[in-house]
Specification:
- The complex is a heterodimer of chains A (about 290) and B (about 350).
- Chain A is an alpha/beta fold.
- Chain A folds into 2 domains: about 100 residues, no CATH class; about 170 residues, 3-Layer(aba) Sandwich (Rossmann fold).
- The termini of chain A are far apart.
- By secondary structure, chain B is mostly helical.
- Chain B has one domain: ABC transporter involved in vitamin B12 uptake, BtuC (Orthogonal Bundle), CATH 1.10.3470.
- Chain B is about 75% helix and about 0% strand.
- In chain B, strands 1-2 form a two-stranded antiparallel ribbon.
- The chains are: A alpha/beta (about 290), B mainly alpha (about 350).
- Chains A and B meet through helix 1, helix 4, helix 5, helix 6 and helix 7 of A and helix 1, helix 8, helix 9, helix 10 and helix 11 of B.
């Protein structure tokens, strides 16, 4: 036991200023960080010909989106364009009436949400959806739910191995807390926190799940410039350090154009453009529908 | 932000970080409390022991309801009925199958657990008030089965139930020794419930309570979690029923009416949702109120004369309602929350916050 403590403490000290070291190790144990044949940037997530209608309202119409290994993909569009709806379809909230979602060539259209999460497709919400009664640390450990090995009887009796596992999960949670700079509020109940901090906690909880792909629904909505910069830094760091591809819905064009590798533009449920930021800026359709000529 | 910890304590590793009792003082106090509970029956008479036994039995049941309603957020109006299932399981196993109490005790937990899981299924589609009505059905079905399946349950006449015999030379027919047994079981169940609340399953309960949509997306199987909540909660209720029923050595369906289920919920509010201490406090207050009402009756005789005899039945109800109303108005988060505030102000003493 003492050795175990020394071990994780040492590991944490090595990269104390950065965080995420333990989490990265955890992910590397299960899979290589970068797919060995990702040179040709294989598609990790594919949503093919997604259509969904609520009554007469066609929310998504034959939308096709690909997320490639290691990229940041931004989805933009006016309000009601179907951005969040697309994320809901991908994460198993809505059932698409037509079309399929593939994660690493595995069809996940019919999977239930928690199954999809276990496969590593993880998302945050536009209006924060945290466990308000738990502390920040507990929220993040709760995010590690599928990765905690022991069964409930072991937990109830609190056998030594459950104790050890809990300490290990806490170490990973602290790792994420370090990375997201939440140290000063780690014990606070989430319901009491300020909006910007809650957004960060939610990102931390999503990270704790060791995602294969991270879907962020407006992570910077309602933040000031400082907080936006922080959040952008976190997103880029996650992308670079853990090689996790990120799908980002965002309205702040400055941020999107800066950090996104590729952009998909939706309008009234149709995909009107796709490409690198420079192309999107010049695209006449996009300017007419969303960006404006200013 | 994080002021909920004693001054001057620091975590040096992750085992310390998740400790429940950090300072030596608190550990000593806890040990003294447990020791005191064991020594107490030597100091008080049979009347006190009977109160303590009933309080202990109800604490186990309240912990069960705390798990279902406080932690998992599923309102259950049928909790007393599951206590009854636990009682009757022991009685039936003893009468028809000749089981000893010890052999029947695990079944007293497991049978209500499976029945509770069955009645927990509506929770997959219903929430809040609607679910409360679905669990109400559990109460009526259970009472109906017990009162009409005469060949097995002896109907409304009730059944005799045997206390455990001797074990390691301890005679449990003596009330004092039986209290020690109930206390031991209560301490063990409290330990189990505490651990449950801070490990994987407990966290997923709270996740489902606070935000079931997010929980589903974060990889928590909601159906499994909700049904487990009912299962574990009803397991506690069953054990509680078995311990309480064996104390009186008699079981009757009159003992777990619908009003008991509702008082269960009411005193959970008094104790405080979502904390183990809340469940213990709620059950204790409930049973103390009960005794208080019997103490008040002779006093009432001086005012009401002969009518006090008739009024005495209403005293407990008046007291119950009064205390629940007082708590709903002045401290809706219960004794547990108030206790947290007291502890906090003690730690911060010279400063107001």
């Amino acid at each position: 036991m003492a050795e175990f403590i020394r071990d994780i403490t040492k590991k944490r000290e090595q990269r104390y200023s950065y965080g995420l070291m333990l989490l990265r190790e955890c992910i590397e144990k299960k899979r290589p960080l970068i797919n060995p044949n990702s040179k040709e940037r294989k598609a990790l997530l594919r949503a093919e010909n997604i259509s969904i209608a609520f009554g007469k309202l066609q929310a998504l119409n034959n939308v096709m989106v690909e997320v490639k290994e290691g990229e940041i993909l931004a989805i933009i569009g006016p309000n009601g364009a179907g951005k969040t709806c697309l994320l809901n379809v991908i994460s198993g909230f809505y059932r698409a009436q037509q079309g399929d979602v593939y994660l690493e060539e595995k069809r996940i259209t019919h999977f239930s949400s928690h199954k999809i999460a276990e496969l590593g497709l993880c998302r945050t919400f536009q209006n924060i959806a945290l466990y308000t009664g738990l502390s920040v640390t507990d929220n993040i450990i709760a995010g590690r739910h599928p990765h905690i090995g022991y069964n409930f009887v072991t937990g109830m009796i609190y056998f030594p191995w459950a104790n050890k596992e809990e300490a290990y999960q806490r170490a990973i949670a602290e790792d994420i807390i370090d990375f997201l700079e939440l140290e000063h509020v780690r014990g606070a109940v989430v319901g009491m926190l300020a909006y910007g901090l809650r957004k960060r906690v939610e990102l931390g909880r999503a990270l704790a799940l060791e995602p294969r792909i991270l879907l962020l629904d407006e992570p910077m909505a309602g933040m000031n410039l400082d907080e936006k910069e922080d959040m952008a830094r976190f997103i880029i760091d996650i992308n670079e350090f853990l090689k996790i591809p990120i799908v980002l819905i965002e309205h702040d064009m400055g941020v999107v154009m800066d950090i996104a590798d590729r952009i998909v533009v939706l309008d009234f449920g149709n995909k009107i453009a796709e490409g690198v930021p420079e192309e999107i800026k010049q695209n006449q359709k996009v300017i007419a529908a969303y960006l404006g000529a200013g | 932000m994080n002021i909920n910890r004693p001054c001057g304590t620091f975590d040096r590793n992750y085992f310390q970080a998740k400790e429940l009792y950090r300072t030596r003082l608190r550990k000593v106090l806890l040990a003294l409390l447990i020791l005191g509970m064991y020594v107490l029956p030597l100091l008080i008479g049979d009347y006190g022991i009977s109160i303590l036994t009933v309080i202990c039995a109800f604490i186990i049941g309240m912990l069960g309801l705390q798990i279902i309603t406080g932690y998992c957020g599923q309102i259950s109006i049928g909790h007393a009925a599951f206590m009854g299932v636990g009682m009757y399981t022991v009685a039936i196993l003893q009468r028809h199958f000749g089981f000893s109490f010890w052999l029947a005790l695990p079944f007293a937990g497991l049978v209500p657990m499976f029945i509770g899981m069955m009645f927990g299924v509506p929770a997959l589609r219903m929430k809040g008030l609607y679910l409360a009505f679905a669990t109400l059905a559990a109460h009526f079905v259970i009472v109906y089965v017990i009162s009409n399946w005469r060949s097995v349950t002896n109907g409304t006449d009730g059944m005799w139930m045997k206390r455990p015999g001797e074990l390691f030379g301890i005679d449990f027919m003596k009330d004092r020794n039986y209290y020690l047994l109930v206390l031991t079981v209560t301490i063990f169940m409290t330990y189990v419930a505490t651990n449950l609340s801070r490990t994987k399953l407990g966290r997923s309960f709270v996740a489902v309570r606070d935000n079931d949509i997010a929980a589903e997306v974060m990889g928590i199987n909601i159906a499994y979690t909700k049904i487990m909540a009912f299962g574990v909660g009803c397991f506690f209720a069953g054990i509680s029923g078995a311990m309480g029923g064996a104390y009186y050595e008699y079981v009757n369906i009159e003992w777990f009416g619908l009003d008991d289920s509702i008082w269960y919920l009411g005193f959970l509010v008094v104790g405080g949702f979502g904390s183990i201490f809340g469940a213990i406090a709620g059950a204790t207050v409930w049973k103390i109120m009960d005794e208080l009402s019997t103490l008040v009756t002779p006093l009432a005789e001086t005012f009401l004369g002969g009518a006090a005899f008739y009024a005495s039945a209403a005293f407990s109800l008046v007291f119950y309602s009064l205390i629940i109303i007082v708590f709903l108005v002045f401290e809706p988060r219960g004794i547990a929350h108030r206790w947290e505030i007291i502890k906090r102000s003690y730690r911060l003493h010279p400063f107001p916050y």
